[in-house]
Amino acid sequence: MSISTSPAPNRTETAPTGVGQPVRHEPPIIVFEKVSKTYPNGVMAVQDVSFTVRPRDFVFVVGPSGAGKSTVIRLLIREETADKGHVLVEGQDLARIRHRHLPRLRRKMGIVFQDFKLLPTLTVAQNVAFAIQVTDPGRSHLKEKVGEALYIVGLEDKLNNFPNELSGGEQQRVAIARALVHRPRIFLADEPTGNLDPDAGWGIVQLLLQINHRGATVVMATHNREVVDLSKRRVLAMEAGRLVRDEQEGHYLREGDANL
Amino acid sequence: MNPMPAFRFVLRAALQNILRNRGIAFASVLTVTLTLLGAGAAVAVVSALDGVLHQEESQASVLKVFMADHISFASVLNLQHTLGAEPAVIHATFENKNQAAAQASSSLGLSSALHILETTGGGNPLPASINLHLRNIKAVSQINNQVSTSSLLFPGPHQTDYNKNVIPRLERYIFAAQLGGAILVAVVGAVALVIITISVRTAAFVRRQEIEIMKLVGATDWFVRWPFVIEGVIVGVASALLASAVLIGVGFAFGSGGALALGIGTRFAALVVLGLVVGGAVLGSFGSVVGVRRSLAT
What we know:
The structure holds two protein chains of two kinds.
Chain A: E1 30-38, E2 44-53, E3 58-62, H1 69-76, E4 84-89, E5 92-93, H2 102-107, E6 109-113, H3 124-133, H4 142-152, H5 168-180, E7 186-190, H6 198-213, E8 217-222, H7 225-231, E9 234-239, E10 242-247
Parallel strand pairs in A: 3-8, 3-9, 6-7, 7-8
Antiparallel strand pairs in A: 1-2, 1-4, 4-5, 9-10
Helix pairs in contact in A: 3-4, 3-5, 4-5, 5-6
Chain B: H1 3-20, H2 22-60, E1 62-66, H3 73-84, E2 89-95, H4 97-108, H5 111-119, E3 129-134, H6 139-147, H7 166-206, H8 208-216, H9 221-254, H10 266-293
Antiparallel strand pairs in B: 1-3, 2-3
Helix pairs in contact in B: 1-2, 1-9, 2-7, 2-9, 2-10, 7-9, 7-10, 9-10
């Protein structure tokens, strides 16, 4: 399988350190410190979870449905707050961020979801431009920035198509382009391949790897075993809300459980 | 954030909101128009009633102090001067017996009775008076008590034309009219507010995915809120203009024999229109802020 996107066009971006060149002197960009979260219905989604993510890491958060993967993502974008423990992003404790400062936090992050969250009445270009228009309406070179983001995801020829004219994989690429226009330092993906066929799903993972290669830290929650095993990246495995495994170049399943 | 592009985006989003939900927007405008019409009509009627009552009040603010027949003109002038110097008195005028008779003939239809009295040698029974124009109806009682001790007054129980029952009754009517009007306007305003809130909440529900995306990509709460606020203001102002048009139309239909005769002049009509437009805009924006609050909660 190979990624169908064009090569990266933007030569002015920060040079990637690339995977395999970890910079261990830098402080972690994400810190989970003994984090627990129980929803109002009594479901304990996350229990005593601790981990750190270094800048430019690519991390899979894996586990079966209900393991707490999506809650980890929701805690990172402060859609939820931890009941216990601390979640820090770039050294900032998210529990202490005032509600009015949340937009500033979210502009540092690119976020994509399983259901794409595209606006059906807007074209591809308008969907991508929307992220800029609602945060910085006066920003110059809007068209160039939109074109650049769509070029990165390989959809520069679909500017004027509407989402319902695209395949699932293409729609997810539009969502990724929208998340990219702010040039986020952190890229969060919650089951981005969940609605896609294996080829399209692998294409999306390749795209996220490319984004990581360009310098962004990527955290991807998934229960797609193939993409995790093929990617050979760090794996945080969760079960029933607990972090049960943290492996560099890990696999979806623990060694020895591969035939389960 | 550059304000002009932001304003353009927000305005366009507000107009798109209205167009997309034109059925709900149209129903909101009609309902809010009806409620504002009620408020406008209440204000007009209360104001007209208030005008009539104040006219009565201004007439009641004239106190006639009846003079005894035997006193000298110098004493009358002295009393007129003394009373005219009172702070509560705007001016004091002297009305002699002949003027009193002429006034009674013209306004009370007593000309034939006075004529009989004069021709039969009874003379003019009406006393001369000092007419005090008071600043405030509440001063009538105080001035009446003050002058009643004077020895220059007409003997008998009716030294002045002060009727202690009329003034409190007038004041009660004015208070009741103003209170009733205020309650009606408050109720109607609350109804309009609820309608606009529901309309905006519906619009926010329709656009919930858009709001969710806006928040995820880092739009501020106010940036999410502004299109709804502008939508609410447009609905409020459009309703106010419609209600004003209906009220003015009704005013014209009544013509000089109707609303205008009750004191609803052009200036007052302009004030009512201005009040409705400002009220509509305030209700619209406030209703929108309340309506969209739930969508911004997460």
